[in-house]
Amino acid sequence: MKLPYERPTLRKLTAGMPNKFGPRAGARAVTALDGVAVAELVARFGSPLFVLSERQLRRSYQAAVRAFGTRYPRVQLAWSYKTNYLNAVCRVFHQEGAWAEVVSGMELEKALGNGVPGPHILFNGPGKRRADLERACEVDAVIHLDNADELHLLLDVAAGRARRPRVALRVNLDAGIVPQWDRFGFNLENGEAWQALGRVACSGRLALVGLHCHIGTYVLQPAAYGAAATKLAALARRCAQELHTAVHYLDLGGGFPSTNTLKGAYLPATDTVPPLDDYAEAVAGALLGAGFPPDELPLLVLEAGRALVDEAGSLIGTVLANKRLADGRRATILDFGVNLLFTSFWYDHHISPTREFSTAAEPTVLYGPLCMNIDMLRESIALPLLAPGDIVVVHKVGAYNMSQWQQFINLRPNVVLIDQAGQPHVIRAAETLEYLQQLEAVPAHLL
Amino acid sequence: MKLKKNIATSEAGFVFNPATGDSFAANPLAADILARTKAGQEAAAIKADILEHYDVAPGQLEKDWDDLLAQLREFNLLD
Fold first, then answer.
1. How many domains does the structure of chain A reveal?
2. Which end of chain B is more exposed for a tag (fewer CB within 10 A), N or C?
3. Residue in A closest to B64 by C-alpha
4. What ipTM was predicted for this assembly?
5. Model pTM score
6. What is the tens place of the pLDDT at every residue in A153-170?
């Protein structure tokens, strides 16, 4: 029997300060996802392949509910559709009890199609059209007002309706972090939000039911959520006292991080991202200390997305080729690129081999298959000596990739969900050229 | 392939260039190839021996051999 082969390679040794912190160096082989062998998944569904774990989706949801629900008595999660609006994923969260948070007319229809009652749909987004507002009124979704033009458009839409549209006001505020997100909603500190609330209350055409803010994305400071909750609670109490309007819910938005490591971060996110409990502690502490009578505590709504779905998603891919760059660096070309792994623009994704290798590793640039210079997945990653045909797994890709992916140069692949019994199900079939071209038309003179 | 005369190698895969002070870690197969090269063995004989003992296709070995040469050139270890 012949010896296992690994290509001959040299690694230059560089002197520097050793780092005794951080996780174990070196890649560990991941041979199965949720108990299903990676090789079997590739054989059945091809490569590249997105894989979602139903077990992890539910686990993450329940962990979030537990973190907030054990600290505050009235909590409701609203699944952020844009993070991953594959129907199977949405339905898992709705089965768990999530409402829907949508940001377009298309997402509103998807939520309705997934059986979410209109009153359990929160309609955010800065670009609602008249038709979107009319549809939201028709199904009694809660419209989160973003700007004055939208408010006046909705007042117009609401005129003559038997039922007053239910609205919440989107508020942007200084939560003590930079950058301060001020592009969504009405500003609190300059009085714009209060002015808008007065107009809503006085109009007689709209029913104010909530206040909303979304302070940012991948926010690493739980205290910022505490600050936002304090300000939103004070605004709600002012509504009750001065406008005689009871605010039923406070929506603290989303922006909770996952444990993906941001580009440029010195330590891995698993070492630096605060647990969801810290965010829950900050928010619950602020709301419980805001002075609401115990029987008038507002419902706390959270529009979690990334924190619920990122960890449940994996992307399986295959090495197509290796090459050496002009400066001597190793480069590996995979069968997926930024077209599928959009989040590689933000994260240094953790990538594992799927078979055992020796401990030898080489700093490698990871490229996708696109004929575009931007198609770089990792600028430098220490990987074992992968050969063409080797399979790799990218971890924590559940958020945004399956909604922001692009049909560009290559078709989009299968997406499978592994159910809690370990059975894989295709939840979105691989695209075909026919699918891609079905909306195209060629003028007669070009036929 | 001809290694510079002053390059020091060890069985464990440590490679040292005293002219530049650079040092390198070679994986077991690269260390073996360098040792044989230093001992004056011809490339064809080394490759034949690898093909006989390792689970690798000739085409793959040729590609990897070229890649090793590229690395040795990049690291300034060849004459």
1. 2
2. C
3. A7
4. 0.96
5. 0.91
6. 999 999 989 999 999 999
